[in-house]
Design a protein that fits this description.
Layout: H1 8-22
Length: 35
């Protein structure tokens, strides 16, 4: 059961992990659109 809350820290962590997989900065600050 996933509790999808609007907690910013959690969202930032999720986005950070996703963007790291995409090959961007671990901080997720550099959002580069994929070609």
């Amino acid at each position: 059961a996933r509790e999808l809350r609007t907690d910013e820290p959690t969202v930032v962590r999720l986005l950070s992990a996703v963007y790291r997989k995409l090959g961007t900065d671990p901080t997720g600050l550099t959002l580069v659109p994929l070609p």
